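Per reviewer request, we include the raw input and output of the structure prediction for the construct analysed in the revised manuscript.
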Amino acid sequence: MIVVMERTATVEQIDRVIALLIRNGWDVHRSTGEEFVILGAIGQGEPLDTVEVELSGGVRQVVEITRPYRLADRRACPSGTRVLLGKVELGGAEAPVIPCLCEPLPGGGEEVLPFCLEETGSAILRVCSPQAASVCDALREKMNRMSPAISCFLLADVLDGQSWPRVPGSADGFLLHPSAWRTRRFLEQLAETGKPLVLRSSSNLPLDEILLAADGLLRAGHRHVALAIRSGKEKTAQPSLDIDFLIRWRQSTHLPIVVDLVGSGFTRQKIQWVARSAAALGVEGLSVELGREFNCRRLEPETFRDLSLRIQQISRASRTL
């Protein structure tokens, strides 16, 4: 947004407009010319009503700069978008918790997991490795036998183009890491499958970059697009949830957002705390890694079941506020 002040604008009027922009989260670049003072609002602030700025004293003109990702912009669909992963809805009344297998579960995990999925109604399995994929088809077949009305959805991670041949062909949708969605030709190839795509990023990557990639998919007519934000340990930080960045995501786009806690570095207890906090902020889904007691950074299937039911309660409550 660019604000052009009147020639006669006083110092107090200029400072008042600057304060308004800063209060809404914008950085202000001031340019003082021979006749006019021009204020440029830059960054990722909250959307501002141009009329409100124009009515401020001393304002000559307000020019709104259109974001390059028009279709992915929150203003394109203020009420939000719903994306179906099988029969599970991202952006609906409840935020599903998506279980992720990075390797086969020891100690009978494959036996109890279908019951957990049936009880929580998630009916989604995410796989991060070929080893985990080797057991997923059997798990899905067992799940479908238990509850024919619930079709289990298989979401597979795609790290980059080189890992594509190792992705299970039975996958119903794909979670794309940055190296995958940053390659335009490969992204177009995945879009041609017609399957849902979840684009994953993190707080150390520019927000505009992933929204431009999502916007390209929407322009191509691919409507089954969601986003995932990686929460947890970055290269120079302790495990954390960047709440400010998450809020900016939700303000910038109407696409459903999943908080990805897989590989976050959180302990089992903190994973549950962070998941509840994210649900209270209104995210449309979460993803957690499953494992057994020997790894305290993964949730046991039974703990996953209890957390999933709690998240459903919190997300329902957050949507009524």
